[in-house]
Amino acid sequence: MKLIQKHFSLYLMFVPILLYFCIFNFYPLISGFMMSLQKFRLIGDRPFVGLANYNTVLNDPAFWQSLTNTLWIGGGILLLGFVAPIITALALNEVLHIVFKRFIQTVIYIPHLFSWVVVGGIWIFILSPDGGLVNSILTLLGKEEITFLTNKDYARPIIILSAVWKDMGYNCIIYLAAITAINPTLYEAARIDGANRMQEIRHITLPQLIPTMKIVFLLNLMGVLRIFDQIFVMRNPAIAGQVDVLMTYVYEKGILNFNMGVASAASFLVIAATLVLVFITRKVTKYDLE
Q1: Number of domains in the chain
Q2: Residues 208 and 190: beta-carbon distance below 8 Å
Q3: Per-residue pLDDT tens digits of the chain, which is 290 residues long
Q4: CB-count burial class (<10 Å; 0-12, 13-18, 19+) for 155
Q5: Are 194 and 137 in a shared domain?
Q6: What's the number of CA atoms in the CB half-sphere (13 Å) around residue 163?
Q7: ABC transmembrane type-1 domain: from which residue to which, for each copy (predicted)?
Q8: Are residues 105 and 23 in the same domain?
Q9: Cβ contacts of residue 57 below 8 Å, gap of 6+?
Q10: Residue 79: which domain range?
């Protein structure tokens, strides 16, 4: 109690933050969970149905197809989006011309600042069969045009590559910052021992980046099951079966069909799966020991 009285002003400043989380995070979360256990009606009573909504979701083939798509697309984004920024950061770290290096950093970071409405529009324009950049190049080379945006074989790769392209610059900056924090005496000692540049990267740079890799991987993993805005912008009926993910399933059930109980149940299944994935990853990577 004396400690609270001593730092009362600090605790007082914490109250608005606590209220914010209670009103805009915890209350909607609790309300959503209660909704998942009810037969939701906009007007009238909302009878308690127990786990019926969860049973409906788990017995819906569309849910399992969405889960399959999510694992393929999310897994591809997670793995490729983990490796690509590391390679890019290592390559940029070797650039000696400061102005050119900063220019490249800026160029690859810019897509991260744009919303998916903008980024999706860019990719739709680039891959369009009617005057798109890629198909225009194919035409000049005497090749047939490819309908990338309606071809099921290209649907998932396009989603994965565009997502990695958008966020690669952000993660690359994080790795570059971590590289600059590495003690330069480690490299000096390695050069004295006769190590070449590749050996320095392998035995010094990469091991020193492991804590940063864990953080980036964990942050990316937390969003792997919650992909929505990109799919919403870039999907179309021709490829919907290949790219519809869990969040589009929730959107369809909740917003389009107004079946809020089923949508809430699906949302909490996503939350539960995300928590399990994060918990397993923390244990496997021994994140808490860093």
Answers
A1: 2
A2: no
A3: 676 677 777 778 888 888 988 888 888 888 889 988 888 887 778 888 889 999 999 999 999 999 999 999 999 999 999 999 999 999 998 888 888 888 988 999 999 999 999 999 999 889 988 878 888 888 888 888 888 888 888 999 999 999 999 999 999 999 999 998 888 898 888 888 888 888 888 888 999 999 899 889 988 888 888 889 999 999 888 898 899 999 999 999 988 888 889 999 999 999 898 888 888 888 877 766 55
A4: buried
A5: yes
A6: 26
A7: 67-281
A8: no
A9: 63, 262, 265, 266, 269
A10: 50-285
In a domain, 44, yes or no: no
Here the CATH number for the domain that contains residue 197 is 1.10.3720.10
CA nearest neighbour of 81 among 156, 160, 173? 160
SS3 state of residue 48: strand
In this structure, are residues 260 and 176 in contact, taking their beta carbons and an 8 Å threshold? no
Instruction: For residue 48, report the phi and psi dihedrals to the nearest 5 degrees.
Output: -75, 130
